[in-house]
Amino acid sequence: MPSKADPCSQPSLMHPDEAIALLLKQVNPVDDSEVVQLSHALGRVLAEDLASSIDLPPFNNSAMDGYAFRFDDLAGNESLTLIGQSFAGHPFEGVPKANTCIRIMTGAPVPDGYDTVQMQEKVEAKENSIFIEAPKAKGANVRYRGEEVKTGGKVLVSGTQIGAAEMGVLATIGANQLRVTRQVKVAFFSTGDELRPVGTELAPGQIYDSNRYSIQGLLSRANVEWIDMGVIKDDPEAIRHAFRNASANADMVLTSGGVSVGDADYTKQILDEEGEVTFWKLAIKPGKPFAFGHLGKAIFCGLPGNPVSSMVTFYKLVWPLLNKMQGLPQSKPLQLKAKLKGNLRKFPGRVEYQRGILSSNENGEAEVCITGGQGSGMLTSMSLANCFVILSQEQGNTADGTMVTVEPFNSVLC
Description:
7 helices; Molybdopterin biosynthesis moeA protein, domain 3; 4 domains; single chain; six-stranded mixed beta sheet; metal ion binding; 26 strands; Molybdopterin biosynthesis moea protein, domain 2; elongated; Molybdenum Cofactor Biosythetic Enzyme, Chain A; alpha/beta
């Protein structure tokens, strides 16, 4: 039996892929930069290409613990004479001679005059006589100066986000200070007289302000500078003041709630008076209402109020915008196929991002199950999940064993 149509679906709903393409055309990277210390550079974005001021490695060194020698000396010699050693930080200070070798440790300098290293497992030592099983080739186990990067060679390019590996690379070339893109500033707040701070008791009809904490976590993962403006009462002038203050101090103003049809609050009214904001209806579930526009010089994004809807629309729409504003290249998220465990209920009409747990079975095959209830108010469905199960707009009910598209959570959601 075919699935019934999604009761919230309408012909005018915009596909989320179309929406993000349109949104990306309307934002630009921040155009100013700053210099930071390497120790504070994690997560920042390089604002210029970076070249190495030294060769990498800076000297010939050993890739193994073993013995360094001249390869040609092995021909016709039963053994080599041990004349010293080279340790990391303590190089051999003598002069290499014919038919000799030195003990050498991984990373230690290979003296000029020696060209090959044999691992210690293939060497027999009898006092100062060293018997070496012939290595495969001249130059074996030697890492040559500049073989990775030569002085002046490009190490990282503008637009690279600095992670743990990049931190190490920068330290390797001695880069103590870096020019990076200024962090994008995002101001966010919640509105509603029903919202109460955590740690207080709830009166009838009140709820805790959870969305603001989820948004704070998402923004922290997105490596932006966030400004938490708290909860704003349902008062026109208080909301107006909040929007003006936020837009004067941030590159983006982000709110949750107040963008649905029929919302009984002042948010839409003040947005219409203070900025240029369009209210979108998207073919996405959870979600659908989304607002985008400008407040002064700031970008405005209004997320749905339901907790899961707020997180999903942030992931799908806001995070790519923040990436572009930071100067990061756009990339398609990783998606793969997995076998569905259990049956899924879905109405055609909207793209669904159901929360799933991706794993592999005893045969190493990818399989996925959903986290349970998928209501847009069930925030535990996000906490339990490690991926989205993406069901296309036309797709209906999906049976156990079907191959479905899954998208593992990115660094923002992990």
